Amino acid sequence: MKKKLKLKDFQKAQQTIIDYLRQDFLEIHGDDRPCICCGEKIKPIHPEMNHFPQTGMYENGIVDKISAGFGSQFDGDMFIIAICDKCIEKLKKENKIEYAGNYMHLY
Ligand SMILES: [Zn+2]
Fold first, then answer.
1. DSSP SS3 for 83
2. Taking the complete model, does pTM exceed 0.85, yes or no?
3. How far is the CA of 36 from the centre of ligand 1 (A)?
4. How far apart are the CA of 55 and the centre of ligand 1, in A?
5. Which residues contact 75 (CB under 8 A, 6 or more apart)?
6. Labelling 64: which of 6, 10, 30, 36 has CA 20 to 30 A away?
7. Which residues surround ligand 1, an ion (CB under 5 A)?
8. CA of 85 to the centre of ligand 1 (A)
9. CA gyration radius, the chain
10. Each residue's pLDDT tens digit, 39-86
11. What sections of 6-63 are H helices per DSSP?
12. How far does the centroid of ligand 1 lie from the alpha carbon of residue 53, in Å?
């Protein structure tokens, strides 16, 4: 007879996968992320809470995931990028990046 899986078993397996991915990522990249423009290290505020780089909070910078769409040779691929606040200011002044609003003040 096949054993019925329980929710707690699913959640435990899910956490194991998250822990494995984080461990794998940390071994390669560490907690800090280099700014794509100047290379300055962007440090997480609570590294112990970062299950994935793009979900963490960072000091003086942004770390997020970008996804390539149809038309790109990287269609479907996802990447983690980091950019420091100083470079964001510089690129905004040079009109190389566009301000798209504030997700905390949408309404
Ligand atoms: Zn920078």
1. strand
2. no
3. 7
4. 20
5. 68, 69
6. 10
7. 35, 37-38, 40, 84, 87
8. 7
9. 18
10. 999 998 877 666 666 777 899 999 999 999 999 999 999 998 999 999
11. 7-29
12. 17
Q: What is the mean pLDDT of residues 14-22?
A: 83
Report which residue type is found at 15: Q
Whether 66 and 78 have beta carbons less than 8 Å apart is answered as yes
CA of residue 35 to ligand 1 center, whole Å: 5
What's the pLDDT tens digit per position in 28-49? 667 788 999 999 999 988 776 6
Q: What does the angle CA 74 – CA 99 – CA 45 come to, to the nearest 5 degrees?
A: 80
Query: Measured in angstroms, how far is the CA atom of residue 50 from the centroid of ligand 1?
Result: 21
The CA 16 to ligand 1 mean position distance, Å, reads 34
- How much distance in Å is there from the Cα of 91 to the middle of ligand 1? 10
Average pLDDT score over the chain: 88
Strand 78-84 and strand 41-42: the pairing is: unpaired
